[in-house]
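Colleagues,

For the teaching module next term, I've prepared a clean inverse folding example: a structure given as tokens, and then the sequence designed for it. I'd like students to try predicting residues themselves before seeing the answer, so please don't circulate the second half yet.
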């Protein structure tokens, strides 16, 4: 890793939602213990401490597969990935929440993630944009750009579609 020592990897991805407003999408994002309802490949997410949606609460997430071979389905030679995450802060007015990863088997150290839901009312299209940004120590076996594309972009696009589809009835 040489030259990467001491440098954080940072990234931000966005997904547009056209069939639901920021006020509709935000409560789904704040349901901290139920991310598995929306995030692709996440089979389990449940609270392990505190009140859902309150700063300091913790969740356990598992089911996806994340390894130095990339993200993908759990299978032969692809162990189930897991993480314990804590809600650090939540701002209902600004529709933003931050969380950190306390422990995991995916090699993420000093991780901080932020989810923001921004209204698109100003651009005439309505709907909203979900932003997911992160900061993490370099992850062994990954290239930052691949991590952003395969985990964050793919995950957020899938999550936004599931959330949007839940309002299409």
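(Answer key — instructors only)
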């Amino acid at each position: 890793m040489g030259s990467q020592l001491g440098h954080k990897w940072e990234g931000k991805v966005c997904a547009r939602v056209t069939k639901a407003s920021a006020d509709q999408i935000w409560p789904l994002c704040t349901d901290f213990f139920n991310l598995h309802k929306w995030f692709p490949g996440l089979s389990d997410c449940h609270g392990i401490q505190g009140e859902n949606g309150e700063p300091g609460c913790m969740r356990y997430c598992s089911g996806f597969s994340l390894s130095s071979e990339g993200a993908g389905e759990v299978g032969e030679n692809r162990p189930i990935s897991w993480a314990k995450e804590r809600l650090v802060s939540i701002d209902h007015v600004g529709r933003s929440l931050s969380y950190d990863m306390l422990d995991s088997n995916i090699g993420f150290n000093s991780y901080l993630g932020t989810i923001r839901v921004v209204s698109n009312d100003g651009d005439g299209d309505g709907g909203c944009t979900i932003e997911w940004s992160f900061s993490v120590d370099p992850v062994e076996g990954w290239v930052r750009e691949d991590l952003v594309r395969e985990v964050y972009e793919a995950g957020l696009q899938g999550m936004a579609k599931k959330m949007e589809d839940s309002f299409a009835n």
